[in-house]
Each structure stands twice: as structure tokens, then as C-alpha cells.
Input
Amino acid sequence: MASTHSEAPEPPRISTLGVDGMLVSFGSTLSEAANRAALSFRAAVEAEGLMGVEETATSLTSAYLRLDLDHADHGSLRAKIETLLGSRDWYAAPLPQGRKLWRVPAVFGTDLAPQLQEAAKLAGLTPDAAITALCAAPLRVQTIGFAPGQPYLGELPPEWDIPRQTGLTARVPEGAVAVAIRQMVLFSVATPTGWRHVGQTALRLFNPDKPDPFILRPGDEVQFQPVTREEFENIRIRDADGGAVSERLG
Amino acid sequence: MAEIILHRTGPGVTLQDMGRKGYLAQGLSRGGAADILALAEGAALLQQDAGLAAIEIAGSFVSLEVTEPARIALTGAPMRALCDGAALAWHASHALPKGALLELSGSAGAYSYVHFGGGIDGKQTLGARSAHLAAGIGQMLEGRESYPIGADRGSRVGLTFAPLPRFDGGVLRLVETPQTHLFGEEQLARFIDTTFSKDARGNRMGQRLVSDGAGFEVAAGLTILSETIVPGDIQVTGDGAPFVLLSECQTTGGYPRIGTVLPCDLPRLVQARAGAELRFCFVPLEEAVALERAEAKRRAGLRSAAYPMIRDPHDMADLLAYQLISGVTRGDDLERSAS
Output
């Protein structure tokens, strides 16, 4: 490894993924610093335009690089990755530029999001205090995955380190907000899930018929704004964007 | 404008091409034909671009009509093919007259393809015509729908070729994943020694494998943080059975992966018949890269490997003789020198 990071829990680790992929992992457990390092490193790889890299992506704590085997080999790409890794302390790197803060109206509880009480109880809060806590601060889009445009948001305060359900909820609708393990998921498709359904938005995170079909990017931030069920219904009827507004984060 | 009119379709019939690259970061996997090789073969038979869309038939049936004369090619898992009641050879290209009824049924395998000269000009979404059902892009094709056929720049039909054998299973080559060694040497040895077959549960997202032996697992209580996953990855889920990710898989996952099937070997998994024996072996990454490069080169050369069918291919007993004859008099010298 080209560099060591004394403050970091683990040094970055390079592995291969499949025949044409490389994975640069900044941690085997999720931490804010490891997530930021992955986002920042991927942005740097994109900015450098590394030869032979066809596509990049991030997951919670790692960056993925897909090679064009016609124009790249693992050895020379690994050397470039090591050079880039050694060029700075990625755990102290700032988040990439061009990110957005999204304010998203959501109704919490009611028949639309029936597991608020249960989740609040597990976090040791009243339902009202839970809503306040979940909407208190912007949450980072730590990664997008599982389904198109679907963000994992975090990190919530420690009391939200609640487990997933052992059983699955048969179906939560598109736009559902669910919570577990100090994260929230904002579902882009109707799906079965083990996460508890605490809120509902009118967001359509993936619209394949739009020129830009994805609303969120990894590294963006989302702050939920609690609305009543009535306000929510109005938004759902009148606003194709689900009432979401964004501003640039520098 | 030439069109196809679908009369009847079974389940699992979709429009497919090479899929959409470049959206992994946004949670959208590439998708595309389950058997990408079949697309290249169809393109070779019709002497056209491999990126054109074809109809994928997942062990099902289709009958359709063409509104104008059209060229077709049939690839992937062989089916019974009839044009106005007359049998057509599989792994071959044919001319359909205006108004002809094409009936495909009785698939012996997994994924069959019918390609049209000029490709099917379905709606493009994010640069591709592939249905990606898991992502909500496109849908299964249904009877009474019609689709335009693109402008056909070619004219040759009656070509065939020797398809890469891939319907009877065999040994699939793997590279290691970041989690391979978490399974331990003993389990890895057992994995290599185990003969698997395809579970009845399988779709474009992935294929579960079954065996007579015990399941596989990493050390109890070990949790793996979700990370990027790719087609070919063999996840081992809670029930201990290997699950091979295919073209329409999710983009991230937290199950340990025992290995990744080489892309050049995936068609043999995808197309293995029910009950076909599948085994695995690990190869070093350098060898895997060389194999992939060699396969890419072979696919690029498929077009020149297509040769004229000069007799009824139902009678394939003297295939060797017929290849020798076609090798001597290709019958397409004029056209080849013109192109």
C-alpha cells in the first residue's frame, strides 16, 4: 500500500472484482469518514480521467472502477490507483463539489406509514420526538443502489441503531421512507423490505422517460420536512416532483 | 414501414439488446440479453451490428407476422420454428415473405432469440431498447402489439454457423472475489468438487443452483458491508445455496460471494438445460483476462465464420462434408469483395 493513515481505522484496500473490475475499499464497517473517502476518491478518479477506466461507482465505503480490457490491464491501473491513494489522506478529504441539498416533504406515521410508532419505541422516543429527530438535520446520500436512484441516507443519531425486522413487510410503495441501523432508505420502487416504514414522500426517484431520470446523486443531502396527511395529498396531486426543492451545496 | 405484429406470446418474451452501461453509480445495472453471445451470433448471421434489438424468449413461445418481406436469424436455445407451417433451421438466417406467420415454440432450453434484419426499432430509453423489468424499463411483449423493423441494409439469408456449445453445462471458470477466502479452504475444495444444476427458480436477475451436498457459508455472525456486485458473482445467501447474478441483477449487495463466473462462460450457465451438470474451477486473474480477450476477438470474427446452408439442415448427419463443400465454394465471393 502506498500510504498509511494513522488516524484511520484501516488503510484503503485494493481488490479485484470480477474479471474487469477493481474495488478500493476504505472500511469494512460504515463510518462517516470511510463513506466520504469513497465519494471523494471516486470523484478524483473521474476528474483524473484514468486511462482504461470505463465506469466508476461507489457503495457505502468503497469505490468501484470498471476497466476496458481492450485498453487497460490490472497492473498499470493498480499502480495508478496506488499513486492516487498516496496523494492525500482520503479520510480527511472534503466531499466532492457540485452536490445538492434536497428538502423533501414527507408525512410521518398515519395509515400511509404505519410503522412510525414501532420504530420510535425501539429508538426510545415518542412518535413526535421521533419525527423531530428524523427531520432535524440533512442526511447524506451515502450511496445509491439496490434499485435505480434509491438512496441510503445517514447517519442518524445512535438511538436509531435499531435492527431490521426479522420478517419482511410484503410491500412498501414507491417514495416510502424506512429506517434501520442508523440509516434511512427512500424507496424508488415498490418492494418488500425488512426496514420499518415510518414516512411517505411523493418523490419519484427514477423516471426513465426523463432526460435525466435520476433525482439524487451519491453525496447529495436530503432533509425531510414533516407535512400533514392533507398537505401530503395536495403535494401528491399538484406536484410531479413531490414538492422537493434543491439548492447547491458549493 | 415494415412491422412485426405479435399474435401470441408466452411469458418472458422481451425486447433485448446489449443493455445500458454507465449507470451503476445510480443503481441501474446494465441489463441486456441474458445470453449476450446469442446477440453477436444473430448479428453475424444477418451481417449487421450486434447492438440491434432482438426478441428474447425465455423458455416460452411466440407467433408473429411480418407486414413486409423480412430477414430473420434464430439463435440461442433451439426451438421448433415454422414459417407458414414449414420448418426453419435454428442457428441460421432466413427470408420471410410479406405477411408470413412465424411460429416459435417448444424451447428445449433457457433463452432463445429471433433477430430481424435492421433490428427491432423499439423505443429507446437511456440509450437502449432492452426491457429491464426489475428497473421498470419496458415490459414483456404481448399479443396484438406491433413494432417497427429498422431499415435493413443487408440482403443475404441462408447462412448458418457452428454455435459455441452451451446447452449441456460443463465446467465454468471463476475468479476469486474479495470474500472467496472467507469460506475457508475446506469449503472451497468442496465447492469445486460439487456438481450443481439449475434450480427451477431462475430469471434474468439471477440463477439459484442446487446440489445433493451440504450448503456453503462464511463464519457465523460475519457481516459483510454491502458493496458493488456484478453479473457472474456467485452469492451465497442464508440457505447456503449458490446464487449466480445475471444481467438484470441489483447493483449492490451484502451477501458473501464465493467466486465470479467469467463473462465468457456465463452463456453456458444461462443456457444450461434443466438437469445439466455444472461444475466450477478457479483460474488466476491473468488467465481470465486472456480468456476474455480471446473470446472478444472470437466474437468479432463470428461474421466471417457464418457460411451458406446449402442443404436442408434437418439432415445434419453429414455436417462435415457440407462444411468442406462450403469451404471450397462459399458462394458469396462476389458479395464479400463488394463489401
Chain A has two domains: 13-92, 100-248. Chain A has five helices and 14 strands. The helical segments of chain A are 32-48, 74-86, 116-122, 127-134, 229-238. Confidence is low (pLDDT under 50) at residues 1-8 of chain A.
